[in-house]
Write a structure and sequence with these properties.
Layout (H helix, E strand, L loop, with lengths): L1 E7 L4 H11 L5 E8 L5 H8 L4 E3 L8 H14 L4 E4 L8 H4 L6 E5 L11 H8 L3 E8 L9 E8 L6 H24 L3 E4 L2 E4 L2
Parallel strand pairs: 1-2, 1-4, 2-3, 4-5
Antiparallel strand pairs: 5-6, 6-7, 8-9
The protein binds 5-O-phosphono-beta-D-ribofuranosylamine.
């Protein structure tokens, strides 16, 4: 069993998928805290409804980004988190957290990295005109959407797709893949060699 802290900024549908996988016994994990940088993130309500500790940390309460990230790190460590799972957390995570959890911070991105990094991966892929996009789960480092890739899933773009119809398929794939990757970690199946993440059978 792994203890995870989840970072969110919004809807938290991936948080919900992780909660559901734990409840269905397909993921051997415990969520020890959910931290949001937004007061109105719906994911906070999802956490509370599941009886999980939910914390809003307001960046405005801290003098700078380093102090804010120390607060995140302290909350994660105080609650005994072993892994940090970013699930729609829309801020760059600071070295204060990354150094406390080396190769233990995961991020989810709605495109096939290194294509279409940034906050608009779904729209950017559609606007560019690629025929295949997808999703990526990777270890986070000090730059957005750059760390070693753990898993990806390709999703075809259909002729009539809009950002909404594509997002629906992207999210459905995310909700399957993220809990699965977390279970690989719970089973200690991942080894990182440089940028390459190897999944043992
Ligand atoms: C997901 O599409 C994820 O790839 C991106 O932010 C979105 C979060 O959605 N990083 P939700 O808050 O989990 O519903």
């Amino acid at each position: 069993m792994i203890k995870i802290g989840v970072l969110i900024s919004g809807s938290g549908s991936n948080l919900q998928a992780i909660i559901d996988a734990i409840e269905a016994d397909t993921l051997d994990a415990q969520i020890v805290t959910v931290i949001s940088n937004k007061a109105d993130a719906y994911g906070l309500e999802r956490a509370k409804a599941a009886g999980i500790r939910a914390v809003f940390l307001d960046p405005k309460d801290y003098p700078d980004s380093a102090a804010y990230n120390v607060a995140i790190r302290d909350e994660l460590q105080d609650q005994g988190a072993q892994y940090v799972v970013m699930a729609g957390y829309m801020k760059l995570l600071g070295s204060e957290v990354l150094e406390a959890f080396p190769m233990r911070v995961l991020n989810l991105h709605p495109a096939l990295l290194p294509s279409f990094p940034g906050a608009h991966g779904i729209e950017d892929a559609l606007d560019y005109g690629v025929k295949v996009t997808g999703i990526t789960v990777h270890f986070a480092d000090e730059q957005f959407d750059r760390g070693p890739i753990i898993a990806q899933k390709a999703i075809e773009i259909a002729e009539g797709d809009t950002p909404d119809t594509l997002a629906e398929r992207i999210h459905a794939a995310e909700h399957k893949l993220y809990p699965q990757v977390l279970q690989w970690i719970a089973d200690d199946r991942l080894t990182v060699k440089g940028r390459r993440v190897v999944l043992r059978s």
